[in-house]
Amino acid sequence: MNPDREYRNMELRIVPFEEGDEPSFFVEGYASTFDPYVLLTRDGIDYKERIEPTAFDEADLSDVVFRVDHAGRVYARSSAGTVELWHDEHGLGQRTDLSRTQAAKEVFYDIQAGNYPQMSFAFTVAEGGDDYDKATHTRTIHRIAKVFDVSPVVFPANPNTNLSVSTRAYFDGVIEMEQAERLEEEKRERQKQLIKLLTEV
Question: I need a surface site. Which of 104, 120, 141, 154 has the fewest CB within 10 A?
């Protein structure tokens, strides 16, 4: 995985077809909803994230590839007309045609068999495209710069243990800042108590 990119889970399902018919070889799904979700828990605090409904409005979706676990061979891509992406009130949607090559069909059958239980998409946030609310411990992403790939994954990411380098660096900085502020507040409170005790003597 690229350390400069962030990864989030998506729904993943095959497009239904009648039993006995040739499979559709299409898979589709939506990125995370626009409701806040817990990305990391540290010291009993839930650090959340929310993607704004307009975050994909200016995102570069021009050449998004379909790979497995964000690495290796490309099985479909938007510039070839085999990956379709859109964004609406539900999130970022994708529909991928895996019918063009035998290798892509094998990935479809693996998905159908349940070997890839979920999907993930890789993206970068535009510079200045997010902010953080200390009161709710929530990062809000307003603008996504680019979506790079959509990938079925063997092990869906556990945000508490498997954050990307970029995402972990962001939240490590937030947590460090909040801890420093708490320590400073505790120090000020101790000084107030000490002054109060000294003036009462």
Answer: 154
Specify which residues 125 forms β-bridges with: 144
- Rg from Cα positions in the chain: 22
Is the Cβ–Cβ distance between 10 and 118 less than 8 Å? yes
Q: Which residues are registered as beta bridge partners of 13?
A: 28
Smallest CA-to-CA distance from 125 within 1, 8, 14 is with 8
At 146, which amino acid appears?
K
Please give the structure tokens belonging to residue 44: 């009993």
Place of tokens 């002054």: 195
The secondary element (H helix, E strand) that includes residue 7 is strand 6-10
48: enclosing H helix or E strand: strand 45-51
Alpha helices in the chain (DSSP H): 102-112, 165-200
pLDDT at 161 over 80: no
DSSP string of 52-64, one letter each residue: -TTTTTT-B-TT-
Question: Residue type for 38, please?
Answer: V
Tokens of 28: 């589709």
pLDDT in tens, 91-101: 889 999 999 99
